[in-house]
Amino acid sequence: MGDYLSRIEAVPAVQRWGLVRDWIFTEPLPFFAEIRRERPVLVLPELTLAFRHADCMTILRRHHSFGVDLYKPKQGDYFMAQDDTAVHWREKSIMKSVLDREDIPAIRAWVGQATKAALDAGGGEIEAVRAITRGIPAGLVQRWFGFTDADPDRLIEWSYWNQQDAFWNQPFDAGFTRDPDGIVANRKRASLMLGLYLARLIARRTVAVKLGSDATDPVTRLLKLAFSDACRFDVKNVLFNIGGLLIGATETTSHTVTNALEYLLGNPDLLASARAAATLPDPALFDGHVDEALRFRPAFPYYFRTCHVPTVLAPETPHAVAVAPGTNVLAVSHSAMFDAAGFPDPEAFMPGRDQSDSFTYGQGIHACLGIAVAKVMVPEIVRQLVLREGLTAVSPPDYRGGRVPEAWQLRYR
After folding, report:
1. Which residues are bridge partners to 303 per DSSP?
2. Where are the domains of the chain?
3. Is the pLDDT assigned to residue 283 strictly greater than 90?
4. What is the pTM of this model?
5. In percent, how much of the chain has pLDDT > 70?
């Protein structure tokens, strides 16, 4: 038995999740290597955790067997808190339609220009979280999603508290999260303020639509759809879904950009290779460096689901475990991306690697709604940063005791 498993079994069962959780965040790769080999499905009192690629795919792709029950108390009737329902099917389809993929090149160009302008304004030193990693996606929400008159600081705040509660304040986080009740209260307050803002925005856009507006932002297009009675999608649905655009875009982008850049800065040879790729005429040739950096340092090391149907994980192996309905499970996707069964030669940093089976943007019906936008916004922000000569971190990102970067001072020439 390996060192990690020995240490797990040496403590009372109620203390084991604390150990495992700490290793997931502080020494993931050696821990994952041992656990995939010796106990790829780990049963704890609070959770069952899966560490191999195939089992993580099973959990995330079989939405009838493993559902998003834990999102419901946080997100209510929003379609992402539902599995394969009519509402989910319809509203995700609508939202994909209004996020025109034809706009992706223009979005990338805007992100590049906005990031460059922020760095120019910094004059050689910048607090990157507010100005860049949160500031640029908040600006994108204003410019491309129709929140033109919004206060960017409020947009950031509303996204932050909703994501804090949904992703980092679950029952299995009890005892590890500071002031969980305070997070819930802040999420409710943020949601109320966001709702008030959106109600005013919708009222203004409704007048514009009635007067024949030819605007093409998602807010206007969703209102036109709602007023057309073409499908079961009314103004309340508009409010929920445009709020979801904001919440999903800002905080996740911040964490993802920070992780990718920090990993590159910590590996000078990779940074030099990424910088060389960043100077090429086709920016897409740079993107694989960010994809691989995020495989090594994902923003979310796991995804959580609740078992609905009796399921055997690691079937037909000596490690098979039967998971009963009602069990909360973690698909430890960071580990899965280092399983050679899914990623050949996983320890190698390979910018040209096929990322189809990656978990960076999720898998299954709950994969990132805005993946097409995210897959240009994230690498373009990182590209603009690595292009700056002499880019260094003054200190590591400041997490302020939580799980997301709150501040990060960078210097450059």
Report:
1. 331
2. 70-303+372-411
3. no
4. 0.96
5. 100
